[in-house]
Amino acid sequence: MMETYVAQSLNEYIELIAKIGSNGTEKWYRGQSNCEYRLTPSALRKVFAIEDQRGYKLNQPILDDTCSGSNNVVAFLPVDRMVTEFSEKAKDCLEYDVSTRIEWECIAQHYGIPTRILDWTTNAINALFFAVGDCSIGQTKEDDIRHFFDSQGFGSGGGAV
């Protein structure tokens, strides 16, 4: 069972992270703007139902949710093809050589291509940066983080680090 901790301020967050990390083991963090989001890579978030639960083919694929329990037969996005096309178009724009498929997926993910990768960090402040997401209030991301805590933070869905 995973334990849940709640911080109401940046100082509380830093103190909490120090306390959690005090046992000497390395922790991994992932910042998400909603604590109810599942740990699902972007390539697996959007699937398309092609048959219903009785095996009848649908006239047109419909957007489905892998977590909905619909029991439809689904098709996933063509991740390999998208990453290959991205790598072919991007290779001349990079200032370094990319030699493996996983490197290409990492780069493609940061340009909005759906992949099978989830970002993690060993830095709790980096995770917080991603947890506050798109709340653009101040001039810098640091201003956004301060405002985030000052305004009581997340909406009803909460956030997760």
Automatic annotation (TrEMBL):
Residue span(s) of domain FRG: 23-154
Taxonomy, superkingdom: Bacteria
Protein name as catalogued: FRG domain protein
The organism's taxonomic lineage, starting at the top: Bacteria, Bacillati, Bacillota, Clostridia, Lachnospirales
